[in-house]
Specification:
Layout: H1 3-7, H2 10-19, H3 24-31, H4 40-49, H5 56-65, H6 70-79, H7 83-89, H8 94-103, H9 108-128, H10 131-138, H11 150-153, H12 157-171
Length: 176
């Protein structure tokens, strides 16, 4: 597939590849191979956790392989929380984090949890307008979250979804 093909819109790419003799299902798969530019949201997440990216496939591959242990400290500095607060937010015991730091790499499931917290931070920045407001919001207890902070509530996937829902309600002016 040529660079020119990747810059085309997906439907046009499917048409061009079909004209080149490829069947339609192969052409559809090739139209979005994930190597195109990373969507802005995921580019921001990659920046917050300090990983390099060239496309969505590379981000997924990095998570599956386990992110570098340095992403923990990088995210901790971005959000402005202590090591123990981040360990609780990503649901990884402090001693395990110390072992991962020595080993140099997180496990895939731990990497996903780190990315989950980074996604929440990016979404809070989008909704609230700047990093400082997002940091403060994530560390302040919320009545809508049973009186705990959004970071504490987001230690599970359903909890993180509820924090994202709360941010959505704030964005649209719904009383929460």
């Amino acid at each position: 597939m040529t660079t020119a093909t990747l810059t085309r819109k997906p439907r046009e790419t499917v048409r061009v590849l079909a004209e080149q003799g490829r069947d339609r299902s192969t052409a559809k798969a090739a139209a979005w191979d994930g190597s195109a530019a990373l969507p802005p949201y995921w580019a921001a997440v990659s920046k917050v956790i300090g990983i390099k990216h060239t496309g969505l496939h590379t981000v997924v591959a990095q998570i599956r392989a386990g992110l570098p242990a340095t992403t923990i400290q990088f995210l901790q500095r971005q959000i402005g929380i202590t090591n123990s607060q981040l360990a609780a937010a990503v649901n990884i015991p402090g001693r395990t984090l110390s072992r991962r730091a020595r080993a140099g790499r997180l496990h895939a499931d731990e990497s996903e949890r780190v990315v989950r917290i980074a996604r929440l931070f990016i979404r809070a920045v989008q909704v609230l307008g700047d990093n400082d407001r997002a940091r403060q919001w994530l560390k302040t207890p919320k009545r809508a979250l049973a009186g705990v902070t959004p970071l504490e509530y987001a230690d599970t996937e359903p909890g993180a979804e509820e924090v994202l829902n709360l941010l959505g309600r704030l964005e649209h002016g719904v009383f929460t």
